Amino acid sequence: MNEKLLNQEDDVKKAAELVSSIGIPSQPALLLEINKKIGRPETSIGDIADLISKDVAMSAKLLKMANSSFFGLREKVDSIQRALSLVGLKNFNRIILATSLRESVGGHGSSTEKFWNHSMTVAGASAYIAKKAGFESEEQAYIAGLFHDCGVPMLMKKYPDYSQILDYALSVVNSASLSGIKKSIIGIEEERYNTHHCAVGYLITKSWHLPITISKSVWYHHFVNIDIHSDPVTRRLSAILLLADYIGGHILYLGGSDCPVETETEWAKMHKKVVTELAMNAESVKDMKDDLVEKLYI
Ligand SMILES: [Fe+2]
Ligand SMILES: [Fe+2]
Cβ of 55: how many Cβ atoms within 10 Å? Predict the structure, then answer.
């Protein structure tokens, strides 16, 4: 497998046909502008507040966040700038990106809820692992986690029988699929729908103008061989995402005796390049998982 696969015209074409028949969601223009500004060092909190003020719905969301019981304020905040200082640029950006993606991609029902819980868990886990691993951008890791399976709701919307394979799509590469005993999720999706959620997700990240490192890691999030990435940043981000997705799979079945996710030892054995890239081993993967369960769920 090499990076040429990223340009596999056939895969992109098939995915593009599918999303064009459903309507490819694009990033709201204001959000795009805010993200551009946040990336510039000269940007102040006042500049972002001015942008937010232009949009009634976004302003209302920010005020709702600031006035939520989480901040425990005695008096209500009605200034956008104060609300933004209180919530923090990072939290605001994460929440608004997640809600915008959710609104754009759509969907409803318990399968959709399960999918969003998984996405939020993997986003949080990616950011946490990125911080621990000293990755250059915690935010990029968060966004990669948030978007990694965003092709799934598009397929669910188009094909009602997709919910039958949802759990398989939300789990990670397992030894049965790796050894060819069981079909991979990509193989199943291609057979049924003539495309797969990784290609659809890749196209969505492109239409949202996300950095190419994120798009590539989304495309390859079911591939254990991270050597396909010649760029070291993408390689590292992919390793972070693969580990976060594995831990997210565990969390999905937390407390259940029927957890289909493999043990840390089995996973580390199958993902040698990932654990080496992150300077980890089966034991530290387990510690990371326990940390995240505690951080995200207790
Ligand atoms: Fe996936
Ligand atoms: Fe996933």
Answer: 16
Q: How far is the CA of 147 from the centre of ligand 2 (A)?
A: 9
pLDDT tens for 239-282 read 999 999 999 888 876 655 555 667 889 889 989 999 999 999 99
Distance from Cα 172 to the centre of ligand 2, integer Å? 7
Q: Which residue has the tokens 């056939």?
A: 10
Contacts of 145 by beta carbon, 8 Å cutoff, 6+ apart: 119, 122, 123, 124, 125, 126, 127, 241, 244, 245, 248
For residues 253 and 289, the answer to whether their CB atoms sit within 8 Å is no
pLDDT tens digits for range 41-62? 888 899 999 999 988 988 998 9
Is the separation of the CB atoms in 247 and 292 below 8 Å? yes
Fold of the domain spanning 3-25+108-297: Hypothetical protein af1432 (1.10.3210)
CA of 266 from ligand 2 middle (Å) equals 18
Between the CA of 221 and the centroid of ligand 2 the distance, in Å, is 8
State the Cα torsion 212-214-216-220 to the nearest 10°: 180
Average pLDDT over every residue of 212-233: 94
Q: Where are the domains of the chain?
A: 3-25+108-297, 44-105
Q: Using CA atoms, how far apart are residues 113 and 163, in angstroms rounded to an integer?
A: 12
DSSP category for residue 263: P
pLDDT tens digit string along 154-208? Answer: 999 889 899 888 877 777 666 666 666 677 888 899 999 999 999 999 999 998 8
Distance CA 30, CA 85 (A): 19
